[in-house]
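User: Hey, my collaborator sent me this sequence without any context and asked if I could get a structure. I don't really work with proteins. Can you help?
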Amino acid sequence: MARKTEIGKCVHCLRDGRELTSDHMFPKAWYPDATPENLEKWQFPACVECNNQYSKIERDLLNRFALTLDTKHPASAGLVDAALRGVDPNAGHNEKDAAARAARAKKVLAEMYKGEEIPQRQIMPGLGERWGRPEAEQSAIQIPRAGLDAMTEKVVRGLAYREDNRFIEAPYKIDTYVDGAGAEIVREMIQRTGKEYKREPGLEIIRAVAGDDQQSAIYEITFWQQFKTYAMVQQQSSRYDFPQGYRVLGRAERVETGDLWCHQGKEHREWLPAKLIGERQPNNDYCRKVISA
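Assistant: No problem. I've predicted the 3D structure and written it out in C-alpha cell form, which is a compact way to encode the shape of the chain:
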C-alpha cells in the first residue's frame, strides 16, 4: 500500500498545509564512524522544498568541513573519506553524478587559500593549523557563513520542536553567531544555567532558557567536539516587525520575485523589493507575502 502523505507545518519556513518529510536535525552523513549503532538520530517535520535546500547546504559544508577536521579525532572519524568520495568523479553512479562531483571538487579547490593568502584573523577557533606546518605549506578552505548560520538555526529549530513541541515564529527571532571574540559572556551564561542535549560524538547542544516566557534562550552548539556556534532566541521589538501580511523567510528558502528584503539590525528602516533572486544574502532579512488558501 502507498504511504499516506503527511500534511502540516514545516519547522523551517513555518508554512502550514505543506507536504512533509522527516528531516534530520544533525544530517545523517555528518554522523562519524564512532556513532553508536543504537543512537536515535533526532528528526522533525520539514516540507520537501526546505529539506531539499538543506540537503544542498549540508553536502557543500561537509565537503569543506572534512578538509579541516582532525582525521585522528574519533568525533570526526570517517568524515574525510566520505567528503572525498563526494568530490571524486570516479565514485559517481552515472555520468551525470560524476560530472556533479567533479564540479563540486573544482568549486572547492577554487575557493582555497594557500600560504600567505590565508586570512589568519578569520580562522574559526578549533579549525586552525594542527599539524605544525610552516605557513608556506598551509592551506585553508572557505566555510560559507550563510551555510553555517543555516545549520545553527536548523539545530535550534529542531531542538525547540523536539523538546518543547514549539515552532520558533514571530514575535521570536533567531540570531546566530560564530565562536570567537565576544563569546565569553554568552559561554559563561550557558555553562552556569544550561541543560545539555547530546548526539555524541558528532553533536552537543547546551541550552539556557533566558526568559520567563520559556522560549527566549541561548544555545551553544559543538560540532564534532572541535568547533562551536551560538544562537539567541528572543522576542523582536515592535520596531523590528515585518510588514503586515508577510511572514519571515526561513534561511533554507530561496529568495523569489516579490519578496522583500532589509538589512539586519535593531530596527528596519525600509523594506525593499528583492532584486537578487536565489540564495539569501547573509546580512539581510527577508519576508514573503502570505497567500491564503
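In plain terms: The helical segments are 48-65, 79-86, 95-110, 145-164, 184-193. You can pass these C-alpha cells on to your collaborator as they are.
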